């Protein structure tokens, strides 16, 4: 496969809380991940929301949540309106504010009945959350005394309410996955053979489609080439090994890289720091620098 650029697949969130509202008419052209959890509130618009091997058609007044390491992208289906709130939250923040009785990570980590991480809101609940989000944005812009504490208070209240929404909707009908079947099968095959050499010819033989057609359909759904997807999966696997304390060389080999020099180069290009620097950062901060 031809070598391609892999930059911008990782979009780091440097703060414990990163809060924003946008009404710009633009989606995300390719799969990417963040170094933390994400709350996404679609206020108005219609989109296809891709998460790993799933794609969901979302309409106005919908909340979706993501864990670190989950690829995602948004495809706009209405070019007239697209309003959303997004909050990115670090693992450290959620752990610090969770208790033995209230684990704020549940809505992200527990997929009740294997359902997608999505809640469709009724009008009353949507208005309640919208009021909270707007208040949060106003406080965030303030420089007054107590701004930081008030911001955190509103975020925690939102997290409690959203966790309850997910828990109370666990028996509702699951939203259908509209990811193209061929793309889903391609991802499944790659995941099952990630440590092996995978070629378009091999994918063609296994999936019974022309390799160029598979590649084109894959990129149309993810915004990434198959090569980029495989590389990112391997880098993410290497991160997990480094998090566990394995050596850089061992992590390289266990992640499907046969050449250490290439591994170090690709890791730094994708993550922004070398594998050794990454491991030291994790050990010093006790906070995974998730890609």
TrEMBL record:
Domain HTH araC/xylS-type residues, every copy: 184-281
- State the coiled-coil residue ranges: none
Keyword Transcription regulation attached:
yes
Name a GO molecular-function annotation.
Answer: sequence-specific DNA binding
Recorded hits in InterPro entries, A to Z, give:
AraC-bd, Homeodomain-like_sf, HTH-like, HTH_AraC, HTH_AraC-typ_CS, RmlC-like_jellyroll
Q: Which UniProt keywords apply?
A: DNA-binding, Transcription, Transcription regulation
Top-level taxon: Bacteria
Question: Could you tell me which PANTHER family the record lists for this protein?
Answer: ARAC-FAMILY TRANSCRIPTIONAL REGULATOR
In Swiss-Prot or TrEMBL terms, this protein is called AraC family transcriptional regulator
Species this chain originates from:
Eisenbergiella massiliensis
């Amino acid at each position: 496969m031809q070598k391609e650029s892999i930059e911008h697949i990782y979009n780091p969130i440097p703060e414990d809380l990163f809060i924003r509202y946008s009404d710009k008419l633009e989606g995300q052209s390719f799969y990417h991940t963040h170094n933390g959890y994400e709350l996404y509130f679609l206020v108005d618009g219609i989109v296809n929301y891709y998460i790993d091997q799933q794609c969901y058609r979302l309409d106005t007044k919908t909340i979706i949540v993501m864990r670190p390491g989950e690829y995602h992208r948004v495809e706009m289906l209405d070019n007239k309106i697209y309003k959303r709130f997004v909050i990115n939250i670090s693992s450290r923040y959620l752990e610090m504010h969770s208790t033995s009785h209230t684990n704020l990570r549940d809505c992200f980590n527990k997929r009740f009945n294997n359902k997608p991480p999505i809640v469709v809101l009724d009008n009353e609940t949507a208005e309640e959350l919208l009021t909270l989000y707007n208040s949060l944005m106003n406080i965030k812009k303030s420089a007054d005394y107590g701004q930081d504490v008030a911001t955190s208070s509103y975020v925690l209240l939102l997290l409690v309410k959203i966790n309850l929404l997910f828990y109370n909707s666990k028996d509702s009908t699951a939203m259908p996955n509209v990811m193209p079947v061929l793309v889903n099968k391609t991802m499944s095959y790659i995941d099952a053979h990630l440590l092996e050499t995978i070629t378009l010819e091999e994918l063609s033989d296994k999936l019974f489609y022309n390799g160029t057609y598979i590649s084109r359909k894959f990129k149309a759904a993810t915004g990434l080439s198959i090569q980029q997807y495989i590389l990112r999966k391997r880098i993410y696997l290497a991160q997990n090994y480094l998090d566990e304390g394995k050596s850089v060389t061992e992590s390289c080999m266990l992640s499907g890289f046969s050449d250490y020099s290439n591994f170090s180069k690709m890791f730094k290009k994708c993550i922004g720091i070398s594998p050794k620097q990454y491991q030291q950062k994790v050990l010093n901060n006790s906070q995974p620098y998730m890609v």
